[in-house]
Queue: 3 jobs
Job 1
Amino acid sequence: MPPKDEPMKKLPGSTRERALAAGKVVLGLGRAGVQRLVRRSLGDERALGELLASELDRMKGLAMKIGQIVSYMEIGLPEETQAILTRLQHGVEPLAPELVVAELEAQLGAPVQKLFDRFDLKPVAAASIGQVHRASFRGREVAVKVRYPGIADAIDADIRQLSVIARVASLATAVDGPALVRELKERIREECDYRLEAAHQLLFARILGSDPVLTVPAVVEERSAEGVLTTAWHDGVALNAIGDARVAATDRIVLAFAKLPWSTLFGHGLLHADPHPGNFLVAAGQQLVVLDFGCVKRFDADRVEAFRALFRCVLDGRRGEVMSRASDVGLVGEGGRVDPDELWALLRFVLAPYLVPRFRFERSWWRSELRHFKRPTSTMRHMPFPPDWLWIQRTFIGMHAVLIGLGVEASLADIARDALGGAAAQGVIGASPPAAPGSSSST
């Protein structure tokens, strides 16, 4: 691993390199479990966090994405370890500047000095697929995201390992592991195409254009390509920074953050499925800037309406309908081996913040609920877990984990009711991806 003050010269891309790095992570997680059992010192927890953060940051791709999720999800890691992992939300190990500039110039077809008035070689973030540099273009400040050279090969190597694990794991459950891996591969490979991300960003900008709080940075199409995405620059602080010194005005930020998946899923068949705090910026005037549209899941109208019926069933307390509604979305297999009471409890856990007038996001609630579903006798292993439910569950549970980290109390029931009570999904964006900027087709 290179020293902290020396940028990486390349990503570990071969299957062997990825496997060795993944082995270090697995060993580190094993140490985490031992530390919790023997109550090791705070210094041990910090050392473990440094090991995990460094390896996942160096691997980038799918490995770093998993680390980002772990950084804000309560999964049992020591608190100090998890705190250190939050650096993965922005990354600290960038690629060498000469490699970034070479990729930028190859993508846009001109020297960097001609492409931008100013281009800062030091990145402001080194994320999982690419890194972000601040620049100036035609007199305005912009953010330039440049894809890592070789990232597609690194992701393919990770997916190959994950596919083997999924096939074995599926033998003892009702989950179609290979199908989940295919879904994951499709989404993360989409994230490598910044033209598609630009199209999604333009689409969300249109959808959220009249929202008083949510803001989407403008895309600079003249300086964007398959491996480069240039957008307007926004100053502000990361979403998780508001948890330390909350004021009444931040309530509107919390409500906007919670409203985003409800309004776009049930109004437009679109889900921004990567809710980690590094993807949101709190800007001046109490605006919540959504920074990243790489991980967007599209649903057709029939699927949206099936999920709408299931969520309405839970919010209305119609316990007797849950098996039927869950079957419609694929959460109950033909054998019906999922216990109805456990299924009802799981769905009420996912939707708990919307079942009461005001909800307090506390770790004690989160931990007690998760312990319930981890029992050896749980029938949740018989749940088929359709691939598109992966993104629903990741988005909503991930969003709730972020709110737990902020320690907020909020009234969210109306957000859910308004979204579920809206018009049928007539304006849903279909399964086909939107056209990239400059394409002749339309969305």
Job 2
Amino acid sequence: MKLSPSLLAADFGALRAEAKRVEALAASFHVDVMDGHFVPNLTIGPPVVNRFRHGVARPLDIHLMVEHPTRLASAFDVKAGDAFIFHVEAVDDAASVAAGLRFEGGRVGMSFRPATPLERLFPLLDSIDLLLVMSVEPGFGGQRFLPEALERIRTLRREIGDRCVEIAVDGGITLENVRSVVDAGADIVVAGSAVFGAPDPELAARALIEAAR
């Protein structure tokens, strides 16, 4: 299991310092970019993310919860190993958007709301490197995990087959459910409140990794 701590739950006044506390245990950092339109919340954008990444060695998974992902993506200072993740509900031609977001050495991911039919994603699996399963309704941190996400993960794992597509899960991850999420087929666990909401984020991140085993 790869852990991707979500900065949405970190102290926005000290993002880099917060990230450095858990960087040794993180495979990447999950960055939620919300525009106040596709989702009702408004978070950080390219200026903050670009400044944050200086001095942070881990890749960034930039989760674009926005209406125009390709228009915004060019403003990010991306590096090899980073990923752009867009929402299938926000675009008309997901395959074209995936191609437009791909850059040299980078990855492209696709996410979807809990109610979006999985069959809508199947034709797009050859266009992406990552599927981000939302186990809460996107837009706000600290929500309770939706148990029906487990069957959706299993279904996607079967459909992916031998394709090189990783499954990440985002929303409501805790010590109590992380093992079930991994057993269902997740490769990457996105955790915000479970890490940065704890008194000691490093110990919390380590406990999540151990619980997943």
Job 3
Amino acid sequence: MTGLKDLDVAVSATEAWLGDLMQRLGWQDRERAYLVLLAALHALRDCLPFEEAIYVGACFPPLLRGLYYEGCHPKRRTIRSRKVFLERIHDGVHRDPGIDPEQVAHAIFALLAARLPASEVEEAKAVTPEPLRALWPS
């Protein structure tokens, strides 16, 4: 660790999220899990209305929050279809044939449902484009 309390806490919290995702996917490869986590969070951010994307990001650990907002453009909300959403995830891992983007999407949405406040999850679900809502756990 860095020896800086706040930074160590931020790293630890992000590692906990990453470990949770790895467990949900049954993976051991941290690099691969990190790449799909970022790709899926960026895809989610870009399909939500801007204000909701901000509220969702505010619930993340500080380090993950910064990574989530990286490359964010308020006017660019481009993802409206399931196909494009899943392609964004797959592109984030260089179209690795060993990764099922739909499995990743379900795991990410389950991770969010488990780690975000229930009220924020319900709000995010409500404004997620209709073709993507089935990716959230029931």
